[in-house]
Each structure stands twice: as structure tokens, then as C-alpha cells.
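Hey, can you fold this one?
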Amino acid sequence: MKYILLLLLVSIVSMVSSCSDDDTTTNNPGVPAGTVMYSADSISVWLSTTGFARDSVAYSTSETGSVKVEFTIQSNVDTPSAYGKFGFYTNATPVVPYFPDIYVPRDEPFSTNLSFASGSTYFAFMVQLNNYISIFPRYVRLRSVKVTKQ
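Sure. Predicted structure:
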């Protein structure tokens, strides 16, 4: 009988202490600064024959505030036998200026800080390759893609 009363007392104390506000909107301060919100090793297309290839990926979140977007643009495209393109699209401010056409080999880092208002936030990354002459395999890729909360 003594153990049953003790068990009942422990159960009541456990239930009362577990009652709290479970509202994650008011109790969650958001994504902490430095948190990687999206990452990819690479987004790429390769062609060893003539033709066209495209790859893309999209990410969306309801998180607001500042983020840093980083990636490296790499390609071995050489005009006039091939043409490449990359895209980075978002609803952030400021509008991201970039030069998407690739006519010569590139290996360049890209980094920008962006700010988002309330509502849905999205990022879309795209690479495209047109290969007109199949002399050697060609590629266009975004390497080490990362979106980090600031």
C-alpha cells in the first residue's frame, strides 16, 4: 500500500510538472545565427556528347531575417563549341546581380548577404549546358552550395 501511494504521488507530480505552453511559435526564437539552412555538395550537369542538360534544386522556408548564400561556379565550357548557364533565384532583397552566361572556363566563388521579410522565402539554383561539338566532356556546376542564417 505504501508503494502504491508513492507511485500515485510521483505520477501526479510528473503530470503537473509536464504541463506547459507547447506553442513553438512564441517559445522558439527562430533559427540561430550560424545555422546552415541549406547545403549541397554540388549541383551539376556533364555532357560527353552533343546535346542539352539542365539540373535545378529549390529550397523554401518561412524563416525571416538575414542569410548568407555561398557557392563556387565551375565550368570547362569553351565557346563556340559549348554554352553554359547558371541561375540563382530568390525573393530576397536586394535583388541579386549576377552574370549567368558561361562562355569560357570558370572557377569563381560567389557570395552574397540577403534579407527576407515575413512570409515564404525561397532559393532556386540551376545549371544548364548546351554542347554543340563533342570534343571532350564538358560540365557546369555549382560547388559547395550553402545558405547560412546570419
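Residues 2-17 form the longest helix (16 residues). Let me know if you want another pass with a different chain boundary.
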